[in-house]
Amino acid sequence: MDRATISKLYRNELATDSSLSEALASISVLIKIINQSKAGTLVELRNDLTEAIDEIKNTDTMVTSISSASELFLRFITLTTFENPFEECKKTLIERGKMFLEEAKKSREKIAILGEPFITDGIKILIHGKSRVVLEVLKRAATESRKHFTVYVTQSLPDKAGHDMRDELQKVNIQSVVVLDAAVACIMEKVDLVLVGAEGVVESGGILNKIGTYSMGIAAKEMNKPLYVVAESFKFARIFPLNQDDIPHQFRFRNSKDVDDCYYNPIVDYTPPNLITLLFTDLGVLTPSAVSDELIKLYL
Amino acid sequence: MAAKRKKNTGTDLKQEEILQAVVIADSFNVRFAPITTDLPRVLVNRPLIDYTLEFLCLNGAQEIIIFCRSHVDQIQRHVESKWIRKSNPCTIKIFSSQECVSLGDALRDLDKKNIIQNDFILVNGDLISNMTLSPILQEHKERRRKEKCMVMTMIMKKTNSPPKMKFKDDDILLAVNNDTKTVLYYKKLQENRVIGFPLSIFKSNPNVSIRNDLMSTGISICSAKVLSLFGDNFDYECRDDFIKGILIDEEISGNTITVHIEEKEYAARVSNLRTYESITKEVIDRWAFPIVPDVSFDINDPKYSYRRHNIYLDDDVKLHSNCKLIRTVAIGNNSQISENAQISNSVIGRNCKIGKNALIQNAFIWDNVTIEDDCCLKTCILANHVTVFRGVTIEEGCVLSTNVTVGPEVPIPGGTLLCKSEIKINSANEFGLQSNAKVYKAFAEDGEDVPDIPWCEPEQPDDISSDEESVISEISAVEQDDRIAFYDELSGLLESLNENVSVDNVKLEINSIKAAYYMEIDDVIFQLVKAILLFPLRNNEQLSIEQYKASFKEETAANNTLVSTYLIKVIESFYDSDVLAEDTILSWYSNCENTDLKNRVKKLIEWLEEAEEESDED
Amino acid sequence: MGSVDEEIATFRRDIKKGNSLTSYEIALKTVNILRKVISEYRWANARELMEEMKEKGKNMMSVASNQSTIGNMVRKVLKIVREEHARCLEEDDNTIEPVREESLTKLYLLKSEDTFSRPVENLRTNMYEALTDLISELETSREDIINQAAEHIHSNEVVLTFGYSSIVLAFFKKARKQIEFQVIVVEDAPKFNGQKMAAELAQSKIKTTVINDSAAFSIMARVNKVFIGTHAIMADGGLKAKCGIHNIALAAKRHSVPVIVCAALYKLSPEFFTSHDQSSFNKLGCPQEVLNFAECGIPSDVQVYNPIYDYVPPDLVTLIISNMLLDKFKSKTFSEEEMPQHTYIDF
């Protein structure tokens, strides 16, 4: 399969279902690739998949979650041993891949159930930009448990995703206000808790997320406000950044325009675990230190 | 039965003795009319009887007997569905009788049924309490072991509400022996502000306290004897009659009542509209913990969730984001509060709808009530299925009975009691075009008292002090009446001595009139001495010397001017006729602290002393 | 006394009546009742047994949703049922994969969840044994904690404690057998349980000082260690402890004094702290203890609150002494001990 078809497939997936995150879209593409692959052995198939993953990463999107999700996907394929003929293996793989996708899609709801009790009536919440999981949690709290609360959304430059987020919240009658990214510290004394999504959850228990999360975490810590992270478990990534520069370059910068002599615009920053109160994942509510446990269980 | 109890003092058998409780689930008055004509009362969305049953179950009652008169079916159905179940270790029986019009009747009925053998707890069906009875029961049993005649332990609650806040019912004056906790005197003050006490209670009891800060809780621990006492005395109507009867007959029957004064724990009776209001708020404000809305009595009870400022919400309460619940509010299942409504100090039942801009203060709203937009409710009770149309203002102290509709756009003046009118009302109803209400007329049923306590009466300035003196003289006159009559009879009797009636017979007569006037023995002596002293003096050798001596020790006698004027003559004549020795008189004089008396007899004493010195010189 | 239902009714009544039961007694009673369920009820498989237990557990918990111990023990027992079921199945035949806890691996590998509906032969006897083991574990748990006393208190140290805690009291008594030290007791208004604690400590010949709650900060400078009991250890490693302990912990932090918590396994709770208002977290007692009802003139004008618990964030707790090894930094292990399922509030 050539590169053009892969990226076209990927774009199609994203276009058909807007609630689908980049990571899930890429997995969906990978399943299709297994289906169409002409590979005769497991190793060949694996090579095909890695190539495809690289191609998807190049399609000018958020790379972090795609890479962690696809790595997990590969892991599940390699974890399995096969005694049957290869064609049957492929069937099992596809079946298993679909199940993986189904489970991953359900995880958002699981997270919403876990996170909902933390949103109590009458509180004020600060969120950062647009996040589907955050939206799901807030929606659940507002509609299912009929809680009233106010949401402050940062407009989140450079793509101003915060405005989108506010529109989504307004649709379900959640009172929401857009604030400037620069107003985070200023608004912090007003809010009761900070809720952010994540692009990736790293081994230390810290997170990689849209630029601005780190400063939000620092402000929250300074004012003793809890910072909760909502993230599906396929965002767990096997990297251990010690500082911002440790983040893989392809995660931080989308294209060459983001960094040159005049500009330095990373789109992702690393929020260390000491700034995070709890992580709500489909595996349960975790403290940052519990994340590495989970990763160790899987990869070691 | 008493004999059996005595025999079975072994610990094994004692454990089998089950703890019984009797609930009188009728107030025998119409203070809550007109709402009680259709329904049993509800407090914070629970039937009132539940609180009483919960209290008894928490205290480990093993058998509860509910005695009711009205709403028997409803009570029966409710109790059976909620309280009579396998997991409940206590058995509940319900009795009803239409003929019973008082507590006395109910207890007599129970006496006939002969189902109570042991000490039992007697409570009213409107009790809300978190008290722990076990130590009191223990104490009661201990005391009964020592004192067979102790028939009842009353439980009173200490309050500190200013007199203005007190309800006439609760204004009780009680004298109690601090050592034995025996009740010596019990009186409802009503309007009286001045009370006379029999002297004997102070003389025979070294440590007495007189209290006016107590409120009856209606809980009493009774021995089985109480029932037979009620059975024997058909004039006992209520608990007060019983207490009075016991106290009067104390000398004859020897029965006594003790009192337990509770200072810490909560106990109150929902006996009228004003207590209904205050107790509702106290329950919501958690004073009766664990009797609070968010602790369920039973697994099927509504589960309220607690919020700051003592606000409780049941499941499925729909609050508009703009409504304001200020404080002390409980809202029942499936109720809906609209935009801009403001609620404080109130209870809202199940399936209620509160319209926009409604202002609700101190209102107690039962189930399925609809209140439309722009209403204003202050201090009122709305029973089930009431509809208040748009723009109605309900002033303080109104009660709207079941199915009443009022409005739109009318004011309901304060203190109005409304019930549903059966006949169709023409369009000129004063309670609005769509109203079906008519004013409830309190009627005296079988001579019962009509609701005598309006919910919110205008505050009256208390000015008893201004005419206090006149009150005193008036009151003492009442007390004095008996004494004067008694004294007259005594004098008459003494006259008869001149007619050669034997002293023994006179004594007998005196005893009999003593009983007739309910006179205390000290009072009798006082009056007798007085009569004798005022009797022509030459007759006095005939009478008991002991009684004379008593008069000398009786300092109160000094207050009587008549006695003191004649005192010197009396003493002199006694001295002359050798009734009193010189030493006795002198020692009395030196011990006497009354200067007035001393001055009067001074001459005599001086003379006596001189005489003594002279004789010494001899 | 007879059936499970009656025992539950008595149990509910005891709890509702107040604080006469220690959490140890509550834990023991809960397990005992659940053990009775095994023998007294008819059930064909693990699922039916668990359903019966859940119902009983909910019945017991409904009396006090903020009483963590009952829930903790019910979850623990349910977990044992699952484990025993799996173990018995493995003995029978090993085609069915036992249920594992939620984890990354499980999430994507496991095909079908066990419904626990297969009848298992030895489950009844095995469960009974397992619960008897649990009871004996509970019974020895206090001893296990107390035996560590000498390791934590050293000669001539000044230690501070708050209110009355039976485990801390026993801990100090044990330590006193070997060394001499001084205890400062914070009195714990409005119940003043600290005074009772001080009296009992003094009886055991321990030098004891009582201070009022507000003096904790000023006295903290000369304290070497703080020992406290707790109502529950929450899923994030924080404490649900008596109201007033947060102040003590903050004062200790300010003076860099270690805060050591004595708590047995039945105190581990999978709950999270979300807000001080949350009714499942805190409990409001009777305002009577704060202000005498009879003495405040018109009570409706004054609102009186008497919260029972405090949340102490995990970063203020230095060490937890328990009957098993706990790593306070890996709180996932805390909740796993009790909670294999997602919906942690309903078992």
Automatic annotation (TrEMBL), chain A:
Gene Ontology CC: cytosol; eukaryotic translation initiation factor 2B complex
Keyword Cell cycle found: no
Location(s), subcellular: Cytoplasm, Cytosol
Coiled coil: none
Gene Ontology molecular function: any one: guanyl-nucleotide exchange factor activity
Keyword Heme annotated: no
Domain of life where this protein originates: Eukaryota
Family membership: Belongs to the eIF-2B alpha/beta/delta subunits family.
Biological role stated in the UniProt entry: Acts as a component of the translation initiation factor 2B (eIF2B) complex, which catalyzes the exchange of GDP for GTP on eukaryotic initiation factor 2 (eIF2) gamma subunit. Its guanine nucleotide exchange factor activity is repressed when bound to eIF2 complex phosphorylated on the alpha subunit, thereby limiting the amount of methionyl-initiator methionine tRNA available to the ribosome and consequently global translation is repressed.
Name of the protein this chain belongs to: Translation initiation factor eIF2B subunit alpha
The organism of origin for this protein: Dimorphilus gyrociliatus
Source taxonomy: Eukaryota, Metazoa, Spiralia, Lophotrochozoa, Annelida
From TrEMBL, chain B:
Record carries keyword Cytoplasm: yes
CC per GO annotation: cytosol; eukaryotic translation initiation factor 2B complex
Domain annotation W2: ranges: 461-618
Molecular-function GO terms, alphabetical: guanyl-nucleotide exchange factor activity; translation initiation factor activity; translation initiation factor binding
Predominant cellular place of this UniProt entry's protein: cytoplasm
Coiled coil segments of this chain: none
Subcellular location: Cytoplasm, Cytosol
Listed InterPro entries: ARM-type_fold, eIF-2B_epsilon_N, eIF2B_epsilon, LbH_EIF2B3/5, NTP_transferase_dom, Nucleotide-diphossugar_trans, W2_domain, W2_eIF2B_epsilon
Keywords for this protein: Cytoplasm
Top-rank lineage group of the source organism: Eukaryota
Family from the record: Belongs to the eIF-2B gamma/epsilon subunits family.
Subunit structure, as described in the record: Component of the translation initiation factor 2B (eIF2B) complex which is a heterodecamer of two sets of five different subunits: alpha, beta, gamma, delta and epsilon. Subunits alpha, beta and delta comprise a regulatory subcomplex and subunits epsilon and gamma comprise a catalytic subcomplex. Within the complex, the hexameric regulatory complex resides at the center, with the two heterodimeric catalytic subcomplexes bound on opposite sides.
Protein's UniProt name: Translation initiation factor eIF2B subunit epsilon
Species whose genome carries this gene: Dimorphilus gyrociliatus
Higher taxonomy: Eukaryota, Metazoa, Spiralia, Lophotrochozoa, Annelida
TrEMBL record, chain C:
Transmembrane segments: none
Keyword Cytoplasm tagged: yes
Pfam families per the UniProt record, alphabetical: IF-2B
Highest taxon listed in the record's lineage: Eukaryota
GO MF term list: guanyl-nucleotide exchange factor activity; translation initiation factor activity
GO cellular component, one term: eukaryotic translation initiation factor 2B complex
InterPro entries, sorted: eIF2B_beta_subunit, IF-2B-related, IF_2B-like_C, NagB/RpiA_transferase-like
Predominant cellular place of this UniProt entry's protein: cytoplasm
Family in the record: Belongs to the eIF-2B alpha/beta/delta subunits family.
The protein's assembly and partners: Component of the translation initiation factor 2B (eIF2B) complex which is a heterodecamer of two sets of five different subunits: alpha, beta, gamma, delta and epsilon. Subunits alpha, beta and delta comprise a regulatory subcomplex and subunits epsilon and gamma comprise a catalytic subcomplex. Within the complex, the hexameric regulatory complex resides at the center, with the two heterodimeric catalytic subcomplexes bound on opposite sides.
Protein name: Translation initiation factor eIF2B subunit beta
The species this protein was found in: Dimorphilus gyrociliatus
